[in-house]
Structure formats: structure tokens, C-alpha cells
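step=encode ok
step=design start
structure_in=
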């Protein structure tokens, strides 16, 4: 088994340099870890804020649609019927072409 001898000043200096380098690397790693955690936190807050905005926009759209249906129920039924008819024709046409 080999033992480390510290009889040479170069060996001691080399070990001290390695310890200092290790401590600096540890500090750098901690800084990077903190920055990554902050970036993740900021991203999460941004996603939550955007999701809340989109939910509010969808709620407004739903309310607007309800008002339009109440104002003109026959037009709403006619538009819905036409959209369903067009969708059905397109689906049948595309389905028939692939078969």
C-alpha cells in the first residue's frame, strides 16, 4: 500500500492548490444551482400567469358567445347547423377519398 509523503514543498503546495480549486468549484456549482432554481421559478410563474390569462380569455369568450346566442338564438342554431353540415361533408369527402 502506498502512502502519501509530504516531505517535498511541491507536494504540499499541489495539495493546497487542489483543495482551493475544489472549494472554488463547489462555490461555482452552488451559484449555478441557485441561478437554475431562480430561472425555473421565474418560468413556472410565467407559465401560471399565462395560463390564468388564457383561462380568463376563454371565460370572456364563453360569456360573449352566451350573450350572442341569447340575442339571436335562431342565427346561432343556423350557424351551428351549417358548421356541422360542412364538417360532416368534409369528413365524408376526405374519408371517401382515402378508401
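sequence_out=
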Amino acid at each position: 500500500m502506498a502512502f502519501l509523503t509530504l516531505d517535498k514543498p511541491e507536494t504540499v503546495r499541489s495539495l493546497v492548490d487542489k483543495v482551493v480549486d475544489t472549494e472554488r468549484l463547489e462555490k461555482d456549482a452552488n451559484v449555478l444551482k441557485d441561478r437554475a432554481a431562480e430561472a425555473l421559478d421565474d418560468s413556472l410563474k410565467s407559465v401560471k400567469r399565462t395560463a390564468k390569462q388564457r383561462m380568463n380569455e376563454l371565460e370572456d369568450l364563453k360569456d360573449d358567445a352566451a350573450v350572442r346566442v341569447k340575442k339571436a338564438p335562431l342565427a346561432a342554431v343556423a350557424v351551428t347547423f351549417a358548421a356541422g353540415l360542412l364538417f360532416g361533408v368534409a369528413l365524408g369527402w376526405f374519408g371517401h377519398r382515402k378508401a
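step=design ok
step=annotate ok -> The first helix runs from residue 9 to 71.
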